[in-house]
């Protein structure tokens, strides 16, 4: 039994890791500010090289979140997925080869299959992508920024913070979806959250109560086998 209003949670770390999945369908249920503050306060215990704590987080709900969504929806017909342009970083390397390309393809196909959207229905696939910019209906939108003079090690620190947020949310019966997609709207997001120019948007994150009836709720992405990913030395 998960009680999100107190700090008494019964999910083990292993269960939270197992249960967390990128969630793309949410209930229209408010996330109390105390619950969100508790998640973020605890997540700030995440490790970072030299304890730089190089992260900056902006959280939106209610009208400010609705205003951002409305702004992006109004811009989409002309801007399309070019977003604000002048992308600040490339989400994927230009030459994404296998096995990475195949994994990316499979994750997409599994999602569209759950939604019964065939490959040739480009319009509905685009529409599903647009759902990113409604936070898939989640009542909280988080934005993770990093100082633009930080390098790869600090970007990795930011990832640790994000995963910790996602696990703490899972522990409280909430769900999340990290969203690099928001990086295409970096100027629009900046205008809404008030981030200074020195900060760079890495990723958004939808956070809310999951809709167990949503067609994508059952999507469980696969993973490469342990021995494909990890080399063990020194054991008999
Ligand atoms: C940093 C990061 C950014 C992501 N950006 C997006 C995104 O923009 N939109 C989306 O639908 N999923 C996004 N995802 C979710 C991944 O597709 C997902 O983590 C992956 O397919 C594995 O599935 P799982 O999270 O359900 O285990 C992102 C994940 C991470 C870690």
TrEMBL record:
Q: Which cofactor does it need?
A: FMN
Domain Nitroreductase, by residue range, is 18-209
The UniProt entry, under Gene3D superfamilies, shows: NADH Oxidase
Keywords attached to this entry: Flavoprotein, FMN, Oxidoreductase
Classify the source by domain of life. Bacteria
Single GO MF descriptor: oxidoreductase activity
Which PANTHER family does this entry report, sorted A to Z? NAD(P)H NITROREDUCTASE YDGI-RELATED (PTHR43673), NITROREDUCTASE (PTHR43673:SF2)
Name of the protein described by the UniProt record? Nitroreductase
From the broadest rank down, the organism's phylogenetic lineage runs: Bacteria, Pseudomonadati, Pseudomonadota, Alphaproteobacteria, Sphingomonadales
């Amino acid at each position: 039994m998960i009680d999100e209003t107190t700090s008494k949670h019964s999910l083990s770390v292993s269960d939270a890791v197992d249960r967390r999945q990128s969630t793309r369908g949410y209930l229209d249920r408010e996330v109390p500010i105390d619950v969100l503050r508790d998640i973020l306060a605890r997540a700030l215990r995440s490790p970072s090289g030299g304890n730089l704590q190089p992260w900056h987080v902006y959280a939106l709900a209610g009208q400010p979140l609705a205003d951002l969504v409305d702004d992006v929806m109004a811009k989409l017909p002309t801007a399309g997925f070019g977003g604000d342009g002048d992308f600040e970083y490339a989400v994927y390397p230009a030459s994404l080869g296998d096995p990475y390309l195949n994994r990316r393809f499979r994750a997409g196909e599994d999602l569209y299959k759950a939604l019964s959207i065939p490959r040739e229905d480009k319009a509905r696939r685009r529409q599903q992508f647009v759902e990113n910019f409604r936070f898939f209906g989640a009542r909280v939108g988080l934005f993770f920024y990093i100082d633009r003079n930080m390098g790869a090690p600090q970007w990795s620190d930011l990832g640790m913070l994000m995963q910790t947020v996602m696990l703490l949310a899972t522990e409280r019966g909430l769900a999340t979806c990290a969203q690099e997609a928001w990086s295409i709207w970096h100027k629009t997001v900046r205008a809404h959250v008030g981030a200074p120019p020195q900060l760079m948007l890495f990723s958004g994150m939808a956070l809310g109560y999951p809709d167990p009836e949503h067609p994508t709720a059952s999507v469980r992405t696969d993973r490469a086998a342990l021995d494909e990913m990890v080399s063990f030395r020194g054991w008999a």
